[in-house]
Each structure stands twice: as C-alpha cells, then as structure tokens.
Design goal:
- This protein has helices at 5-16, 20-43, 47-63, 67-78, 84-98.
- The chain has one domain (22-98).
- The protein starts with a helix and ends with a helix.
- Helix 1 crosses helix 2 and helix 3 (47-63) runs antiparallel to helix 4 (67-78).
- By secondary structure, the chain is mostly helical.
- This is Hpt domain-containing protein.
C-alpha cells in the first residue's frame, strides 16, 4: 500500500488555496494529530482505547482524503490491541506522509 505525501498536499491546497504558510501549518497539525493517535494505539491495552484511537485516525485521514491511511486505520480497528505489525505499518505510513 502506497502513502502518497502529494495527496495530503493536494487536499490542503484544495481546502485553502495557494497560501503556503497556511498549508504548512495545517500539514504540521495533521502530522501531530496522526502521530498522537498512533502513539495512543501503541499505548492502548484494551479494545476500547485501541478502537477509539483507530477510529480517530480514520476520521482524521478521511478529513484529508487519505484513503490508504483510512484503510490501514480500519485494519487497526479490527486488530488486537498492540498488534506490532499494524503499528509498524502505521509508523511507516506516517513516515511516508512526512516526506512530502
């Protein structure tokens, strides 16, 4: 599954136009929020906390049209809390988006 950092930039540009400072600020806010949800997933020890963080991540991804990240968040919601494979994939996806 590919995580295109250009998709995030395109979504931000569509929302705010050509204001590069605002795009940069929104990008930082998105990345911080996504990282926070992935951190919460990593610390979750019960199904409820794990699912809540996965659903929040999915909602965040949906807000920016990042369908690959949405699918991965769905996969996380179905996995067991602390699933290392899912966490590795989420960290890789976030790193891929960070490159843009």
């Amino acid at each position: 599954m590919s995580y295109d950092p250009g998709a995030l930039h395109a979504a931000l540009s569509a929302a705010v136009g050509d204001d590069s400072a605002l795009i940069a600020d929104l990008r930082v806010a998105f990345m911080e929020s996504a990282a926070r949800q992935i951190d919460l997933l990593g610390r979750a020890r019960c199904d409820a906390n794990w699912e809540l963080a996965a659903w929040r991540l999915k909602g965040l991804a949906a807000s920016f049209g990042l369908t690959a990240l949405m699918a991965l968040a769905d996969e996380a919601a179905e996995a067991a809390p602390g699933d290392p494979r899912v966490l590795r994939r989420l960290h890789a996806a976030l790193a891929g988006l960070q490159q843009g």
